[in-house]
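Supplementary notes for students who missed Thursday's class. We covered one full example, reproduced here. Read the sequence, then the structure, then the short commentary at the end.
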Amino acid sequence: MMTYTLPSSERTFDVEKLVRFSDEQAIVTEIVITDRSSIAVWGVRPGQQVQAHTHPDGQDTWIVIRGELTYYLGNGRKKIISAGQIDVAEPSQVHGAINEGTEDAVFLSIYSAPSLQVVTAFP
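Structure (token representation):
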């Protein structure tokens, strides 16, 4: 996973202008980071994934902007989430995704906690 952080004092953002893609892996661009939350946009090409993981201390809300993803729920369970859908992972709930489609996928991740803690998990 490659991460970019935008230095900004803006309040309004254009997701489609901020999203980045790579041929090698999914790309996350941090849009806003505060002491209470963070907002990031992910660019996920076909075949790429966001590794299954949990956050022990915070809720991670994903809002799909474009495309569709096979979303990991843990214990081998998964579901399709697509443009316009929102999924909320509570603290310690497994989440992650793979793009099994033919189009690029874009989603926002809104993480609510004082610090970003990531624990790798099984899909």
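Commentary. Residues 38 and 66 are 20 Å apart (CA to CA). Residues 15-18 form the longest helix (4 residues). If anything here is unclear, bring it to office hours.
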